[in-house]
Amino acid sequence: MPTTHAAFARRLNQALDHVGFTKGRGRTTALACQHDVSRETSRKWLGGLALPELERIIALATQTGVAIEWLITGRGAMVLDGLSVREAAPFPYASADQRKLIDLFARLSPKRRRALLELLGSA
Question: How many CB atoms lie within 10 A of CB 6?
């Protein structure tokens, strides 16, 4: 039987796959960037070594369109019919362009990130 942390990590990866979130080595970086945490923290969530705080779990469930109870416990349906939690998300993983942009941004050095933000802010 998997540990609570490992089971959560499996469900988190399923939820991210459900919305087409970046796969492979870029997933850790993209998730860290999206949730403003370190790559190490993101790696621990995805690897079953740590659990996010409740607020972040709620955000993850909302942004991926999965049921919070399922994400936390594994009980119930992964996606509830007729429930539209994604519409209320502050930044849903809605398009391939957004995911690509996040992935590319996450690969930049901190100096280049700041420069890009300054450029975009002045446009």
Answer: 13
The Cα-based distances of 18 to 56, 58, 93 in angstroms read 18, 16, 10
Integer CA distances (angstroms), 62 to 3, 23, 30, 40, 109, in order: 24, 19, 17, 23, 29
Nearest to 103 by CA among 10, 15, 28: 28
> Cβ contacts of residue 56 below 8 Å, gap of 6+?
35, 37
From the number of C-beta atoms within 10 Å of its C-beta (0-12, 13-18, 19+), residue 33 rates as buried
Residue 34 CB neighbours (<10 A): 21
**Sequence-ordered list of residues with C-beta below 8 angstroms from that of 10, at least 6 positions apart, any chain:** 2, 48
Provide the token pair at 33: 């960037």
pLDDT tens digits, one per residue of 32-53: 988 889 999 999 999 999 999 9
State the burial class of residue 7 (Cβ atoms within 10 Å of its Cβ: 0-12, 13-18, 19+): middle
State pTM to two decimals.
0.67
